[in-house]
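Reagents: none. Just compute today. Cyclomaltodextrin glucanotransferase.
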Amino acid sequence: MWLSGCVSVGEGHAGAQPQDRGHSSADAQYYGTTEPMAADAVYFVLTDRFVNGDPGNDQRTQGGADPSRRTFDRPVPGAPKGRSDNVGYLGGDFRGLLDNAGYIRDLGFGAVWLTPIVDNPDEAFTGGDAVKWGGMFTDRGKTGYHGYWGVNFYKLDEHLPSPGLDFAGLTAGLKQHGLKAVLDIVANHGSPAYTMPVDQPKFGEIYAADGTLLADHQNLPPAQLDPAGNPLHRWYNTRPGLAQLSDINEDNPEVLEYFIGAYSQWIDQGADAFRIDTIPWMPHAFWHAFTSRIREKHPGFFMFGEAFDHDAATIAAHTLPHNAGVSVLDFPLKERMAEVFGRKGGGFERIAERLYLVDGPYQNPYELMTFYDNHDMARLDARDEGFIDAHNFLFTARGIPVIYYGSETGFERGTAEHAGNRNYYGQARIDAAARSPIYAPLKRIARLRANSPALQRGLQLNLEMAGDRAAFYRVYQHGGHAQMALVLINKGDAPTTFTERRYVQAGRWRAAVGGGEVTVAEGDALSVSVPAHGVEVFLLDAPVRRADLARELDKAQPGARSRR
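Predicted 3D structure written out:
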């Protein structure tokens, strides 16, 4: 299905612009971002659900004899025939991740985002509403397998390390495979804290690095806490948060110092970037102080937040330097990607509306984390071809791509939390992944991005984004490096021909997907047939010399503002 040997050069046209070889654009700087992290597409693993590399840390007897409190293997009741979900631990660990670092790197990724690694309670939660098939915000019977119920943010959860392999060992091992470690962090909440029939150990508690108890909800509803009279309550807000989670008091100065200390420790052990969970639940002032302090010690440290909102203006506030000054997950674009590439269908014009390349609300749209699904929503509900189309766009358009584990094979497509979204993947599926029709096209386009500075960091200039067709430039000219990419995507069920005349610069263009080269003379058009659900990327390693292209890039450059 991939283009091969069908490149042609069209005749010149009356409206063609001269090359204007004396134009100063050859010395101009054109880039979407200089952020080093932009070079690295991110593979996101929910660590417990990836691969069980060391059964010795499974803690299968944890929780004791009481079946309501055991932590390992807790199937969600009510599953339809042939379906399953689980809210217990299933054994995924650092060893399973490191054993498959080569697989992730070979697939074309440069970073791994892993869920929180800190200590979580040692029992299943007995409060709240009972977990049920497809339920939301129901936590009775659930464990902290996901890592987001932290109780000691300085201590590793015992399900993750193995003898000789702690977090520092994991990050060192990942780096040997050319992979950065993106650590998921939480600061706005701890573990479930109230509604338990009997208070359970660790739930609603927070501990210092030395094991000293710092905070305890004491199984009391928020309104019954007494921060003024009880020091153990001062870490918590007296208003309810999400579900029964302990809601941490952003106004307590001890809180900021605690989290700066804890997360600095994990940076010292090799974390290369942070993903900030639920960033809107703490005020801008808190995150500004946190990120400023982190960057005082680690200049330029990359962070991105999760603000689950489809309004760009709302989530963009976190990217501004006077607030957190971080990147964010691009939820507004995700909403359109799920529509356009999913079974509902839609044209590329729906995506174009969410790119905000010029005069947009974001500090820099090129540093946004782009994705189509993750662990907190239904996985992409698409045919194999929909996944292929999504990857062709995701790895060529602006932003830093993030792929949720298993998407390379369409794993659990369309399933939501408590209905299969977070199911165990396992070594057998990884070993068989290359047989999926989705796998090879993803590997091809991901590895192309990994080797193209234009696709990683270049300004984006749209030529056509409508229906099943997308055509755009990515242009990078900075620090002595110059590369143009002309991206042509066809998500239709039949081949289509692109004939591009605008801004096509004379030179030898390489067809990076289909192979081969084409020499374009001054004033000529470039014409190519792109197969159904296919992509072609033409690369030209040369500075910008066309006056008309330079003018458009000059207009686009102000949209790529620095966060610093």
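Residues 457-556 form a domain with the Immunoglobulin-like fold (CATH 2.60.40.1180).
Action item: order primers for follow-up constructs.
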